[in-house]
Amino acid sequence: MMMKTLRFAIALILSISAFAAPVVWTPAAAANWHARQGWMVGGNYITSSAINQLEMWQAETFDPQRIDTELGWGQSIGMNTMRVFLHDLLWQQDPDGFRKRVNTFLEIAHKHHIRPLFVLFDSCWDPNPHLGPQRAPRPGVHNSGWVQSPGVPALEDPAQYPRLEAYVKGIVGAFATDDRILGWDVWNEPDNLNESAYNDPKDKIQRVAVLLPRVFEWARSAHPSQPLTSGVWKGGWTPAKLEPVAKIQIENSDIVTFHSYDPPAEFERKVAQLRNYNRPMVCTEYMARPRGSTFEAILPLAKKLDVGAINWGFVQGKTQTNLPWDSWKHPYVDHPPAVWFHDIFYPDGTPYRQEEVDLIRRLTAP
Predict the structure, then answer these.
(1) pLDDT, tens digit, for every residue of 196-228?
(2) Which partner for 292 in 259, 263, 266, 346 could form a disulfide, CB atoms 3.0-4.6 Å apart?
(3) Coil, strand or helix: which one is 260?
(4) Number of domains within the chain
């Protein structure tokens, strides 16, 4: 009788544990994950034929052949990850089709030994995304067609939050135990107000501060085996200096991610600040050549510091991120920039700078 009671009690505990609310990984669990990954190196990836996330993923413009070709270039220089942006409207439009296209992408990436870090939401650029055909690039302008997710209309309308929840739980749940995925970046630069290009609402940060913890909860409730994160990108990053949204990002992230388009000394200073959190680190955006954030300056340093490195841009294309940020005010319509801002390859696979791809290949060699 005692053994039956004991077995019942154990079964009850296990059943309760199975449905217990998941929590942020411990530093030990994060370190365990990190030890299995090796050094993570890659780029922020969108097909060169797409102007934004919607054009990359919608059924009419999804291009597996182009993805296969371009990820092959990444594999050829030793890259093992890509940061890839998704969008909530794609789930609203066609969840089954979107899920299948994500799986197709994963099949291609796996063939090239690349494990993506998927981005669920993004506060950057156009606040009014729409499904269907996307506009043509604005001549001479950096990222002229990139769109926010959720768009401002959805962010301002709590009645739309259930569909955002369905998207997060649906896409993370569909691939929660998929080893082909490196992790989930739940929200890119959530408190970015896009002051250089668009007029986001003044209360955007307050709304994001309410929604961001819920997004983490939704993603975590799908019990992903992969880590969750959201990268800090501005302000001070020591515990005493964290801005409100950055505090939410750090406290809810299993691994620490960050952005730095800075020269080496500042990059290293930021890494030192983030050591406070005792977690693996990945820089999910860097490399803006005119600012001193170059492959030559940052990549060897990131390797020495054991920080993963994912540069912005990969193949020159419709996003036009080879053009600098100031092109929003001064479009490069009559002359190219003196030096590319982002991107590594021309659309035909020719490297912009052979010495850069040689360096990446050398640093990523086994």
Answers:
(1) 889 899 999 999 999 999 999 999 999 999 999
(2) 263
(3) coil
(4) 1
